[in-house]
């Protein structure tokens, strides 16, 4: 566990070659895109999730209903309760991410996964660190495979050096692991103890963290994305290239 091996460039798959690429924050990119969209006249309802799909008499999708605001845990209404609103559209695009609740309804209702392989998933755990300037190397990208995972488990780690002395560090673990004692969270903690990782963060401070589900199935598991009056995109449609 004290060792790591750098693969020769000739053995690195094309999708892991990052020379000349840019490291960007997806969150910041989305904020910028939102500003561009609003400038073009697009209405964005941040903080409102869709909870119901609207259909016409011919089962064509005509929009969605947002969730109610201001309910107690038992479902009763609080003071200031606001019911969800109907948002109608000629075409509704669903982009909920992996295993979206509305997408599951649509896939089942329209049999979009007929003849497809079952979808599989991973969990991605990520932390954002702030480190001293001498530990920061903007543009440096490290991908890992193997330890701390065992030979029967799928996954790997990543470390991206960002601007402003920030480092994004994470681990992806396939959720089809067979070891009942394996904890993706604990494996993430072990990853940080490896000398090749620890040397970049041992004097730093963790300032953010999160986790999300990731599609693994690839093209064989992609449901038909086209619907009467709608479309599945992104992880809703399983388009993520897990490699």
UniProtKB/TrEMBL annotation:
GO terms for molecular function: 4 iron, 4 sulfur cluster binding; electron-transferring-flavoprotein dehydrogenase activity; metal ion binding. InterPro entries: ETF-QO (IPR040156), ETF-QO/FixC_UQ-bd (IPR049398), FAD/NAD-bd_sf (IPR036188). SUPFAM superfamilies: FAD-linked reductases, C-terminal domain, FAD/NAD(P)-binding domain. It is an enzyme of class 1 (oxidoreductase). Its EC number is 1.5.5.1. The keyword Oxidoreductase applies. The keyword Plastid does not apply. It holds the Pfam family ETFQO_UQ-bd. Keywords: Electron transport, FAD, Flavoprotein, Iron, Iron-sulfur, Metal-binding, Oxidoreductase, Transport, Ubiquinone. Its cofactor is [4Fe-4S] cluster; FAD. Residues 121-214 form the ETF-QO/FixC ubiquinone-binding domain. It catalyses: a ubiquinone + reduced [electron-transfer flavoprotein] = a ubiquinol + oxidized [electron-transfer flavoprotein] + H(+). Accepts electrons from ETF and reduces ubiquinone. This is Electron transfer flavoprotein-ubiquinone oxidoreductase. It comes from Salmonella enteritidis.
